[in-house]
Amino acid sequence: MDLHPLTDGTAQGGAAAEPDPATRRGKPAPHASGPTFLEQLVAEGLMIPTGVPGLYGRNTTFESICEGMNNVMTHLGRGLGAETLHFPPAMGQADFETSGYMKSFPQLAGTVHSFCGDDKGHRRLLARLEDKSDWTDQQQPTGVVLTPAACYPVYPVIARRGPLPEGGKVVDVMSYCFRHESSLEPTRMQLFRQREYVCLGTPQRIAAFREQWLERVPELATALQLPVEIDVANDPFFGRGGKLVAESQREFRLKFELLIPINDGAPPSACMSFNYHMDHFGHMWDLRSADGATAHTGCVGIGVERMALALLRHHGLDPARWPQTVRDTLWGG
Amino acid sequence: MDLHPLTDGTAQGGAAAEPDPATRRGKPAPHASGPTFLEQLVAEGLMIPTGVPGLYGRNTTFESICEGMNNVMTHLGRGLGAETLHFPPAMGQADFETSGYMKSFPQLAGTVHSFCGDDKGHRRLLARLEDKSDWTDQQQPTGVVLTPAACYPVYPVIARRGPLPEGGKVVDVMSYCFRHESSLEPTRMQLFRQREYVCLGTPQRIAAFREQWLERVPELATALQLPVEIDVANDPFFGRGGKLVAESQREFRLKFELLIPINDGAPPSACMSFNYHMDHFGHMWDLRSADGATAHTGCVGIGVERMALALLRHHGLDPARWPQTVRDTLWGG
């Protein structure tokens, strides 16, 4: 693999990397009358419909591409001294509430509910099932909430350890995430994996971390032979108030996205993002730097399935026939 | 690794394997006044509390044991000609309803709910969050249900393909599963992984498949140096009616479990199970054998985290110091 791992610490930030103009454009042609990209993926057996838009099974070929992208991320993060943590795809409701997610993205979150009734309630439930009517009215919240982004379970765990070490900290995490978005675009799954590096420390530490990654992106795009753009972005904050937050996120250049054309005749999809949360999570969880100041946080992450879809879109549905350098980047040369 | 892979097809069933008397007993001593097993796992950093019983983060050591157990299962299944499928940790509500799970285990299932309201509803939600009162009353079911067992998403996908091939079929699947069980026993997680082989075909095919696995268990126990028992078992079917179903499951010897002592002074935990569903799923999803008869199904699966906990319990909290043969079995010799 040609990509150089990032190194910990002292890299100085510069301007955001300019995407290589040579790979800047490459929007896939609209499917016109032929099968859609999703239909092609399904016909090839790469994605397996489950009857619910955004929930798909996958075959081993698709999964091996996901593994390859994880290899790339592991390789890139090798110099960062990251601690790897693993979490199930859900978190406790108290930590979830603390994150402030319901303020910003209530429409996307998923709470987990269970039947907590007795024999009589169960008979009523079964009668409704029998009648094909709604049986979920007896479901009660369990205090478990699906993970909205891979980094969310990280902050409370690190906060409970006390102040950060001198020089801050980097955590490597991958998790299934849930977003309540029903869509026929293969890139918009309801359950998908994010692989993230989370940086916690001083504002300077986070800025340097983000710049390192932004500088590395053109190299990544070249190695994977993908047409990419990097753009300032904003999240889909909820409601009228959310519009102001989104504008401010854009204005202060807090979020950058790596965009790759994937879907038929649609704008390019965000496949990787760079987020600077300032002291939002630091305040919420009372995260402290070694000097006692409220810590700042940032993260860089890929949508694992989206990166796999980008590769399938641009190099074809059979990875055995992909350019050898791309294969080497994903699976070792 | 010394274990021989299973082979596809024509193995003839015999009696259920008798566990080796030499490894039959080995219940861990109760913790008396010392730290509990869970406390030891947490102190060692292997499991990371999240504030919710049954939801834990894990470090890389714990995960490498899980990977090792998956290696063992991959190796054992190598001769079976299995098709590997991957699923996210949830399935569509229609398929979930078809499975009949809400009839048998309504108390364990988890449905996913989201906020679908407008700005006004959102303001009400935020006011409740602010007051620390219940804000989940506006959550609506999304049609997504957490996977209750790794094999559940398999049946509808295979059924949609039409009749099974001649000789039936084996599917290899691993998934996160949810069960609404709050417990301080580390073996009883709310989200955990199951690695399963699912066999679909004639009753003879399923019987042969199960016997092959049951015969291989003493060899597995020896290779991992774990004290095990195999016992006829029954599931925790819900309610008064459920008791009859459980008794019948026991009487017809439809389920066997591999039991290993893990928790402090508690009965041994089921770490692997062998289930014969007869034609239950075949009927539910109209699964057909090649000759048009309703297919029978069975599965064998491990609880990935439970097997990891069994190894940690019996060989100590530092895998670097485990017996070399155990290490070779898990990570290749």
Automatic annotation (TrEMBL), chains A, B:
Name this protein carries in UniProt: Aminoacyl-transfer RNA synthetases class-II family profile domain-containing protein
Source organism phylogeny: Bacteria, Pseudomonadati, Pseudomonadota, Betaproteobacteria, Burkholderiales
Domain Aminoacyl-transfer RNA synthetases class-II family profile: 177-319
CDD domains: Gly_His_Pro_Ser_Thr_tRS_core
Region ranges (Disordered): 1-34
